[in-house]
From TrEMBL:
A matching Pfam family: RNase_P-MRP_p29
Subcellular localization, as worded in the UniProt entry: Nucleus, Nucleolus
Primary residence: nucleus
Organism, as annotated: Ptilorrhoa leucosticta
PANTHER family hit by this protein: RIBONUCLEASE P PROTEIN SUBUNIT P29, RIBONUCLEASE P SUBUNIT P29
Protein known as: Ribonuclease P protein subunit p29
Superkingdom per UniProt: Eukaryota
Gene from which this protein is expressed: Pop4
């Protein structure tokens, strides 16, 4: 083992080399009055930014035909269970659609409800060929409804200039398509005005 004098001289030389700006007296004072802590600064780890998963662009979705319903799937009977689920969803949303329920409260909830699975009828239209179309809403876009009719025909009906009606448990509600030009996801967060001009 090293002697105490050798140990002292080694520590003194080490500190002098490590802290060249300090005088011998300061180093000696440090050794006699306090413990020496050799500081170590670890390298800061840079956090790797998580890459956001990019979805498909509108062009890619069209090319992949993600939202197109295959012809063999365009059958009214296939989507009747979806309609039954939608009816149960609306009953839960409106607390049962009781006879004493206030119509404007139900109307307000239907304005923000998801309409996929609802059976709707075009009651008024500036284009007479649309009047009378009845079917289950399969897809809702900003400007159109895609409806499957009982004749197993897929109809693309624009919202603009059309009035739709839907009936559930005796309650009939009317949808003015011109005021409904929103995506389903946007509509759920929109505040609708109670009063306004009603037109096609």
């Amino acid at each position: 083992p090293q002697g105490s004098e050798k140990a002292k001289s080694f520590v003194h030389a080490f500190l002098k080399r490590s802290m060249p700006t300090m005088t011998d007296e300061a180093i000696q004072d440090m050794l006699t009055r306090k413990a020496v802590v050799l500081e170590h600064y670890p390298k800061k780890k840079t956090k790797q930014k998580r890459k956001k998963t990019k979805g498909f662009t509108a062009k890619q979705r069209r090319e992949l035909r993600l939202f197109e319903i295959e012809p063999e799937q365009q059958r009214y009977a296939i989507f009747l269970p979806l309609h039954e689920l939608w009816k149960q969803y609306i009953r839960d949303l409106c607390h049962g659609l009781k006879p004493d329920a206030q119509p404007h409260m139900i109307q307000g909830k239907l304005l923000k409800a998801d309409l996929h699975g609802a059976i709707v009828t075009v009651t008024k239209s500036k284009c007479p060929s649309y009047v009378g179309i009845t079917g289950i809403i399969l897809q809702e876009f900003k400007h159109v409804f895609k409806i499957i009719t009982k004749e197993d025909k897929l109809k693309v009906v624009p919202k603009l200039n059309n009035v739709f009606s839907l009936e559930l448990d005796g309650f009939v509600s009317y949808i003015y398509g011109s005021k409904f030009l929103l995506r389903a996801s946007e509509r759920s967060a929109k505040k609708f005005k109670l009063k306004g001009t009603i037109d096609l």
